[in-house]
Design the sequence.
């Protein structure tokens, strides 16, 4: 059975229509995908200046925090040297006209705050003398740059007439690194 030219023509037109329909569907999908990608690209380009500014701000904060950390590390001694602090304490006691009953340095203990480990020595400084001189001693301990890493924790004082005795508890901190 032989097919006529009309049947071949109709079959050819049908195949051509199917191929054309398939190409149209593929093209439509590609155009839709291209529009979505262009939209995402535009959104990303619009976010880029804000993200760049945020990155610069965060970098500035990181530099500032690094600088602050370096400054803080400088103000804390690497280790608490009992001989040096003892000499400084005796010097201040003498300068303030006080008598220091005793001075002993316990072994430094490690303390941790977040990711920072530091050493701390707790001292009890029993002094006696005039009330004004004791207050001067406390002021010097709190303001002398050699004691920048020192915290006055507690003061116990008893006063008898012109003289007084006080026990001043301090913590001296050292940065471990």
Sequence:
């Amino acid at each position: 059975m032989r097919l006529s030219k009309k049947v071949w023509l109709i079959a050819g037109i049908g195949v051509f229509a199917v191929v054309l329909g398939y190409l149209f569907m593929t093209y439509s999908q590609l155009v839709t995908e291209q529009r979505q990608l262009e939209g995402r690209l535009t959104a990303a380009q619009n976010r880029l200046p804000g993200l760049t500014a945020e990155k610069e701000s965060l970098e500035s904060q990181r530099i500032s925090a690094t600088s602050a950390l370096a400054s803080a590390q400088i103000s804390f001694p690497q280790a608490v040297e009992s001989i040096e602090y003892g000499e400084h304490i005796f010097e201040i006691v003498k300068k303030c006209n006080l008598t220091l009953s005793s001075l002993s340095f316990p072994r430094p203990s490690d303390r941790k705050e977040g990711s920072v480990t530091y050493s701390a020595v707790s001292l009890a400084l029993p002094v006696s003398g005039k009330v004004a001189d004791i207050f001067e001693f406390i002021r010097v301990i709190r303001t002398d740059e050699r004691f920048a890493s020192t915290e006055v924790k507690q003061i116990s004082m008893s006063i008898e007439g012109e003289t007084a005795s006080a026990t001043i508890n301090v913590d001296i901190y050292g940065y471990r690194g």
Summary: Residues 82-175 form a domain with the Alpha-Beta Plaits fold (CATH 3.30.70.60). Strands lie at 99-100, 109-113, 116-130, 150-160, 163-175. The first strand starts at residue 99 and ends at 100.
